[in-house]
């Protein structure tokens, strides 16, 4: 490779490294390997172990050494430059992609902003800045409408091996999206003074979150709701305005916790069988529909939140007469809606 002025070569070397987001030594090593490959192409049969290419980082001059003997052929610089060009570009692209994926790998489990770029069958390609991500149909909210150039928040769930190499997977249905949005909107959650104990959701419809704070003077529910509901409403808007969010106080008293989990139903009395993990719940007749929820959604989410099978009885004040009694259960095995897709709960370990 013909020698060029130090400032010109050094500037070019550093510029390539800076633009591609890779170390200067990585670029230099890539160029040297490409030059050696060019030499081997013109000299088949040489033993790789005995030959090495050396590139002067100051002048850009390339030389080939057999052990410690300079065997650089006349005019090799021009041949090396032409042959190595494509190899260098390919290697740099690989290093660039590797650097990008390394950057996003540390962001797994966090929120990223992105824009809908295009549709690839049932999947959606998302522009997340330095790279493109995939949102599979399984990670989409079924009743949410997506369109080109739409800007949304996504949960970066994983980087996995695909047909064409590594793929960044993002989600709108993962429970982690709600957790990340609360960390973004609620300083007390971001700082750790309010803990999100458990999150359960049926994406696009409803979510329940159990919150807790061990610090005196902090109202965990009020902190998450915000003044006049401004914080939780901001999160609901990030979810397209489709998903209602119930925020309840976590308690280590299981009766209290189950009663809270059945919110917005009030005046709830709970009796539990801890051995069988069954809760018998008694609610006023006029609160029964709230406790059960539409299509059993409220009691189903309460079951997922508490891990207790919930049997609900609605009674009148007199508590008499067969017609005054109605029963419902959270047993998902007997629920007609078990065929619906439901997200798993995310359990938080106590700090």
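-> sequence recovered:
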């Amino acid at each position: 490779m013909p020698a060029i002025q130090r400032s010109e070569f050094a500037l070019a070397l550093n510029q390539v490294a800076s633009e591609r987001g890779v170390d200067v030594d990585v670029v230099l090593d890539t160029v040297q390997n490409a030059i050696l490959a060019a030499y081997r192409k013109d000299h088949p049969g040489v033993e790789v172990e005995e030959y090495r290419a050396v590139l002067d980082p100051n002048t850009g001059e390339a030389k080939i050494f057999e052990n410690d003997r300079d065997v650089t052929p006349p005019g090799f610089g021009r041949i090396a430059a032409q042959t190595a060009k494509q190899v260098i570009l390919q290697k740099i692209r690989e290093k660039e992609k590797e650097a990008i994926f390394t950057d996003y790998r540390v962001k797994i489990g966090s929120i990223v902003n992105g824009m809908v770029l295009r549709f690839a069958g049932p999947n959606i390609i998302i522009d997340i800045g330095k790279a493109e991500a995939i949102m599979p149909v399984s990670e989409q909210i079924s009743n949410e409408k997506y369109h080109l150039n739409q800007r949304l928040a996504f949960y970066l769930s994983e980087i996995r091996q695909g047909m064409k190499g590594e793929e960044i997977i993002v989600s709108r249905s993962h429970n982690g999206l709600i957790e990340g949005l609360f960390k973004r909107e609620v300083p007390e959650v971001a700082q750790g003074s309010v803990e999100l104990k458990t999150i359960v959701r049926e994406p696009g419809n409803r979510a329940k979150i159990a919150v807790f704070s061990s610090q005196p003077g902090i109202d965990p529910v009020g902190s998450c709701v915000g003044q006049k509901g401004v914080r939780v409403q901001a999160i609901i808007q990030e979810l397209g305005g489709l998903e209602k969010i119930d925020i309840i106080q976590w308690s280590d008293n299981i009766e209290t916790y189950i009663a809270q989990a059945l919110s917005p139903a009030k005046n709830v009395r709970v009796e539990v069988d801890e051995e069988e993990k069954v809760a018998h719940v008694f609610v006023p007749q006029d609160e029964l529909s709230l406790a059960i929820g539409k299509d059993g959604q409220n009691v189903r989410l309460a079951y997922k939140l508490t891990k207790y099978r919930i049997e609900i009885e609605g009674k009148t004040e007199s508590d008499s007469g067969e017609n005054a009694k109605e029963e419902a259960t959270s047993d998902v095995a007997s629920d007609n809606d078990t065929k619906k897709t439901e997200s798993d709960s995310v359990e938080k370990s106590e700090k």
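The first helix runs from residue 6 to 20.
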